[in-house]
Amino acid sequence: MDLEAELGAQLAERRAANLYRERRLLASPQGGRVVLDGRQVLAFSSNDYLGLANHPDIVRAFAAAAERFGVGSGASHLVCGHASEHQALEEELAAFCGRDRALLFATGYMANLGAISALVASGDLVLEDRLNHASLLDGGLLSGARFQRYLHNDPAALAERLTMAGRRKLVVTDGVFSMDGDIAELPAIAPLCSARGAWLMVDDAHGFGVLGRRGGGVAEHFGLGQDALPILIGTLGKGFGTAGAFVAGSATLIDYLVQFSRPYIYTTAIPPAVAAATRASLQLVMAESWRRDRLVALVARFRAGAAQLGLEVLPSSTPIQPVLVGSEARCMAIGAALWQRGIHVGTIRPPTVPKNTARLRITFSAAHGDGDVDLLLDALAEAFAACGEESP
Ligand SMILES: *Cc1c(COP(=O)(O)O)cnc(C)c1O
Questions:
Q1: Which residues of 27-66 are buried (b: 16+ CB within 10 A; e: fewer)?
Q2: Which residue puts its alpha carbon closest to atom 7 of ligand 1?
């Protein structure tokens, strides 16, 4: 089979379906305004919710640690790459989350793959919300356990699935759903798991740092300790503004993952300077609650304005505020019209979201001001007007 012809045909098909993905070139730090493809634009597309990715305290902590430790960690944690900065960060994250221990992973994708595939296998059952992040779905498939999805954020549908057979039963959900912005119904899901002897794992990539009075994420938001929510995943590249991820839970859970989680064992540790930067970030997350207050105000302003414009926003109270547009073609056209007006938003299409639910994924950051929201709303009004109604 000819590689060029075979792959080329599939690429052409993707282009024709308006599903072709392209990268824009970033030439600035993250922030409310960024330089993308050579243009200054107002960006509502990053996951740097707290505006920390370019914070001077964090940049300084990174540079100082790089002076001491160099850049590369040189090895996996179990060989000789586990530096004092990693250890200190793990201890601080565990204390912050109210868990016995935390374990650093290189990325959220790997933490999810690493936790699920170590915890369940053939003969076990893994139940996932059907709108879970791709890394959670991939982890479930990789594990070899019997894999079932349940209706989105529906504890009754989950309860029904929990009657299925399986030696170990693992329930996995996003804390804040990445493409919809809604929050998992954990006050119903957690007791259900406890009652049925299932283990609950929550991936709080979009809640950690953002939700909860001190930024402790969904666990703090709902007051769920280690018993109610035994397997907690946090990522550090979003609200925390750095990189990496962690699993937090009991000493037994962490000890087990160190022994049995292949994506933990067989990969190089993140640079110690990244861990040091994250320690500085944690201090800001805890101390500067104004960043979370700012987000709440920006979201309220946006939702009021979007309602006036008659936009189809989803029921979300988080900084993820998707606007439904329907077809892939219309989504791309509106995205392009916004870009013309100096605004960048994510244009999210299948397979990331279900068919016919293409959307603008608008995200807010504490780096935005009220005036930025107003500019966005004006541009949305113009872009929707310019692109007309969807033809049936
Ligand atoms: C972004 C994301 C991840 C992946 O985290 P990375 O650190 O970027 O690999 C995992 N889960 C969810 C829900 C996410 O949105």
A1: eeebbbbbbbeeeebbbbbbbbbbbbbebeebeebbeebb
A2: 108
